[in-house]
Every structure is written in C-alpha cells, then in structure tokens.
Write a structure and sequence with these properties.
With about 325 residues, the chain is of the alpha/beta class. It has ten helices and 15 strands. Strands 2, 3, 4, 5, 6, 7, 8, 10 and 11 form a nine-stranded mixed beta sheet that branches. The structure holds threonylcarbamoyladenylate (TXA) and magnesium ion (MG).
C-alpha cells in the first residue's frame, strides 16, 4: 500500500471519514493533548500489527489504549480504588495508568504482558472520534521508532505520510510531551514509569517515583520502551545546565535556551518561552527541535529545564535525545 496522508480538518464529515478508516482496520494519525498518536482498533490484531509496522516499532514494546470514558475502560482493565481516585482527578487528560488487563485486550497490544496501559484523552477532537467508535484505540506516538514525537499534523505527514491514509488535524498539541505513566497494579506502591505533564507533586506519589532515566537499558526491558536512546533527532544534541551557557558552541551550531536571553549573540540562538514558563517550554520543545533538525546544524545545544513539574518530563526527554551517539 502506498499513501500520501491527507491532513484533515476536524469537521464532522472528516471525523466520520477517519472513523471509517479505523472501522476498516486502517491506522491514522490523531491529535491528542500530549503528542500526535498513530491510532488503530485496539481489539483488532491486524490493525494493531499495522501500527507496529508503520512505526517500525519492535513487538516487545507495548501500546497505550485510549478510551472515550472510564466506563468503556472498565470493560478491559481491572481498576482498584487508588486508580479510581486518580481517574477522578486527572481524566480526561495526560495520565496513563498501567493496570491488570482483562482478556479482551489482545496480547499483541501489551507485548504479552498481563498489564495494559490505558488513558482517556482530553483533546476534544480525539474524544469526538473515540465517541463515534465502538472499540478503543491503541496509539503510540506517531513518530518513526526512536525519533522525536510529533506535536503538529505536519510532523506526522513528513515522517509517516507515505504509510497512512490520513491525519486528523487538531492543531499544536497543548502539552508537547507524552503522558505521565503510572503503574498502579499495586495500589500501595504506585510507580511513575514515565514523567509527563501530570507531575509527581500533583499525583502525590513523590517518594515512590522511579523515573526511567534512573534505570539502565537492561532493566528498562522490564518496562519496555523506556530505552535510554529515544526521542533522538538526526542532529546530535548536547545539554547544558539550567541558568548557564553552553560550554563550547561553535559555528553552525544552534543554542536553545529556556527563556529569551538578555543579550543575544549570533543568529543561531533560540528560546522555548519568553520568560521561562515550564508549560510553554514543554509545548514548544519538540516543535523547535524538529524545526532545527530539518536544517543543517552540526549540533544543537539545549538548556535543561528547571527540574520540577513538567520540567522533569522535559529533562527526561532531553536526556534521551542527547544519549544518541553518532
Ligand atoms: O501521550 C502519550 O502517552 C502518547 C499519546 C499518543 O497518547 N502515546 C505514547 O505512546 O507516548 P508510546 O507508545 O510512544 O509510549 C508508550 C509507553 C511505551 O514506553 C511503552 O513501553 C509503555 O508506554 N507501556 C505501554 N504499555 C505498558 C505496560 N503494560 N507496562 C509498562 N509500560 C507500558
Ligand atoms: Mg513514543
């Protein structure tokens, strides 16, 4: 099959068209409040297999399943009281829960594990799409495996456009980094598997936090997909500390600061927000990296974010992007 994905405005007719693609077992690009997803029918093994193929993702890396409501999710996963408490506070939204799965979820979705990662997304376009369907959508981020996640429909078109029929346009993703993943199978010891827009502080599970960057690649296999070298653009990334300057930036290298610097030396200086607002930094991070990656810089120096709230997720993604050795 050869496609050139059309970017579709979220009109009622286009939502129906995308729903038809999904009912027919195709996979499509969808907007979420975190990053764009590559969605397919989570209950149809052939569609799920197509997701892995289109993304070039190894089958050992399980997918997140997206539902229109908690009620829909309870048919496929086993909730405990702690999970319901978090659902009450954070759904619909950027919180993914890992819970024990029910048999209705194909093993292919969970890489054979007895647990499933689930969320009810808050993006109104994605939500409307889910409401049209009588099945949930499995959706990883809509980037080729190992590359930076997409935050615009155009990012998806540029990388996966030849392999999917359509991308539903929902504008620039609000958060700009992937959802927070919390393993809640044991309600007494919740674990943050991936930091995201919903911070450890907000979740109130600071002490049990295990951020994936603290683990090595060997142990990451037990939480598949948390590999250190991830989110990497083609251009090598070097990090420098919050509040400092890059150590040795040279010509043909770009520098990205959190906030607009007081004095700007050279033309290859960029910033993620006017005044260092962490949500704005996250929102713009992948967008700016993808833009600069399309240029011809030999290296991109990026300032780490302040390490709290969504800044923890920003630093997690930056550390992975910088782990690539060329
Ligand atoms: O914001 C997001 O979460 C986006 C949007 C599209 O929803 N999705 C996303 O999916 O980031 P993906 O596939 O790029 O990342 C999902 C992560 C992977 O690292 C995977 O290993 C982990 O979730 N995961 C999935 N199922 C799991 C499970 N049962 N146990 C532990 N980790 C799991
Ligand atoms: Mg991803």
């Amino acid at each position: 099959m050869s496609f050139q994905a059309e970017i579709l405005a979220p009109s009622e007719a286009n939502l129906e068209r995308v729903a038809d693609y999904l009912r027919g077992g195709q996979v499509v690009g969808v907007p979420t409040e975190t990053v764009y997803g590559l969605a397919g029918n989570a209950l149809d093994e052939a569609a799920v297999r197509k997701i892995f193929e289109v993304k070039g993702r190894p089958l050992i890396d399980p997918l997140i399943v997206h539902f229109s409501s908690l009620q829909a999710a309870t048919k496929h996963a086993i909730f405990n009281d702690r999970a319901l408490e978090l659902v009450e506070r954070f759904w619909p939204g950027a919180l993914t829960l890992v819970l024990a799965k029910k048999p209705s979820i194909p093993d292919l979705v969970t890489a054979g594990m007895p647990s499933v990662a689930i969320r009810v997304p808050g993006h109104p376009v994605f939500h409307s799409l889910l409401e049209k369907l009588d099945f949930p959508l499995a959706a990883p981020s809509a980037n080729p495996f190992g590359y930076v996640s997409p935050t615009l429909a155009e990012h998806v078109q540029a990388t996966l456009g030849e392999r999917i029929p359509a991308i539903l346009d929902g504008g620039a993703c609000q958060h700009g980094v992937e959802s927070t993943i919390v393993d809640l199978r044991d309600p007494d010891t919740p674990k943050i598997l991936r930091p995201g827009p919903i911070s450890a502080e907000a979740l109130g599970i600071l002490s049990a936090t295990i951020t994936s960057s603290a683990k090595d690649d060997a142990s990451a296999q037990s939480a598949p997909g948390m590999l250190t070298q991830h989110y990497s653009p083609r251009t090598p990334i070097t990090l420098f500390n919050h509040g400092s300057q890059p150590r040795d930036s040279a010509e043909n290298e770009a520098v990205i600061f959190n906030a607009k610097p007081e004095t700007i030396i050279g033309s290859d200086v960029f910033w993620l927000s006017e005044n260092g607002d962490l949500n704005e930094i996250a929102h713009n991070l992948f967008m700016l990296i993808q833009k600069l990656d399309a240029g011809s810089y030999a290296r991109i120096h990026v300032e780490r974010a302040a390490a709290y709230e969504i800044g923890v997720a920003v630093n997690d993604r930056l550390t992975r992007a910088a782990a690539k050795r060329l």
